[in-house]
Structure prediction request, 143 residues.
Amino acid sequence: MSDTDHWSQPLEDMQSVDTSYWQGRYQGPENGWLERDGDSRNSGTMSLAARQAYANEAIRQKDHVSAGLLAIFLGVFGVHKFYLGCNNAGFIMLTMTIIGGMLTFGLAAAVIWLIAIVEGVIYLTRSQTDFDRIYVLNQRDWF
Prediction:
């Protein structure tokens, strides 16, 4: 067998491959990276943490258009924050609108409404992948 045929070999037959270059280059499965079985040319096996991350990513995906429209129309009450799972920020917006609005004769509610409009426009102008990365996976609370 020639050296160029090693790409089509099953992994079990590749016992003589020098793996010293790849030692320490990939993090272990506890950090959610792909486990490599020695050679970089194999597909590797996906660790449990990586499989869970992919599963959670599919489940946790929120629509940026829905979040943007909620922010524009109901954002003064923090509804878009509750939709994204940022409950603390949602309660802050709701409290500032109700209690702050009463104490400041509506000025605090107007400021919260402006913040919600800006957030809604930001949500609508981001792509879905950027929105998921920033606001859903990283749970960024403000802007």
